[in-house]
Structure formats: C-alpha cells, structure tokens
Please model this.
Amino acid sequence: MFKALSDPIRLRLLSLIASHEGGEACVCDLIGLFDVSQPTISHHLKVLRETGLVGSERRGTWVYYWVLPEALAKLSALLQTPAVPAEASA
Amino acid sequence: MFKALSDPIRLRLLSLIASHEGGEACVCDLIGLFDVSQPTISHHLKVLRETGLVGSERRGTWVYYWVLPEALAKLSALLQTPAVPAEASA
DNA sequence: CGCTTGCATCGACAGCCGTCGATACAGCGT
DNA sequence: ACGCTGTATCGACGGCTGTCGATGCAAGCG
Model:
C-alpha cells in the first residue's frame, strides 16, 4: 500500500480523483494532466485499483475511478499507532 | 516519505524502534532481527533518517535511533484529507 | 457493418534501488 | 599505542518498476 503511494504520479492521481467533481473522474480527464503517455496512466490506475485504493466502473464508453476512503483511513490509523497495541499494557 | 515507508524492512525497523524500550533502539539490537546484512540495515536507517522519520545520536560506542512522531502525524493527517484543503471552500 | 474513440494489455527497454562484501571510521579497553 | 567492537560508507551487481510504442478490446455512431 505504501508502495502504491510511493510514486508521485499515483499520489497525484489519487488527489485528482478525490478532488474531482462528484469524487470520481474518467480516465480521459486525467491523461492530459501528466507528461506521460496514456498506457502509463492506465498502468498506475491499475496499481491503485489492485491495491484497493480506488474503485473503477465502465460507464458506456468511459471508465470512471473513485477513491475508496477506507484504505486511506486504515493507513492513517496505522501511522497514529506505530507501536504494537498488544504490548501497551507492559 | 511514502517511498521511505514502501520498503518492508524500513517499515518494520520503524515499528521495532517505536516499540522498543524507551522508544529508542541501538543498531546492534536491530541487525540480528533481519535476514539482511549490517550494511543494508545501516542503509535503510540512513534513508529513514534523511526522510525525517527517525532521529539518531551516537552515545559512546553505540548509535541510537528513535522515531519522530511529527512526521507520522503529518502523513496521517494527509491521508484523512485526500483532497486539497485550499479548495475546500469550493 | 465498418469506422472512430476510449481504455487496457503486451513486450521491451532503462533507470532506480535493495543487496552484498570489502573497507573506513569512531570509540573503548588494555 | 594497539587491537577490538560497533557503525557507516563505497563500489558493484541484479532485480524490480516506470516508461514507451504497438496492439487489442469495448462501445457508440454513421
């Protein structure tokens, strides 16, 4: 999961999707915002999807992506408790 | 920063240091817990240090590392607000 | 039914990064 | 001063991964 977020393009993709109108964006809205080719964007979106950070759905001709906040919440909680909670009583 | 956390060894190092007695650990306590060589551990600790995730101090013969919680808190907050805060009013 | 557009997949290549052994450096004990 | 232990740095190598062009597939349109 951290690995999925370790790429600047993927991080920006996530931010763009989340801040897009309706909380979702189609690929055609994203491929113009980067200096990389369309296959590369598609590849990064696939990584985000397989990591569980975003969901996707084909809607007619276009494919839409949206952020799954649960995954982000999990990571956020993890960073707030770096020590193992099971040993907290010691 | 996410890049620094994207390596399993670094992630475990961070967890081990945080959960160690006194919130800090010397390198000699860590090098035995992994299947990699001492230079590799030293390399990963350097990455964590340069990223601002941990602090280090030489104390006599040994070098101690501890976690800087501010960095983790920043990331945690970032994940809770995936959209850019500056555009929140829109 | 063929053409066009949107997106995904494939195969190949290059650069990055984690890894190691060897070595250098620092501090302590003798 | 010398050696010993703990840690960092160096140089090299291999595998992973981000990138591309080419191509394939899906859906709408004439």
Remarks:
- The longest helix of chain B spans residues 38-51.
- Strands of chain B lie at 24-26, 54-59, 62-67.
- Helices of chain B lie at 2-5, 8-19, 27-30, 38-51, 69-80.
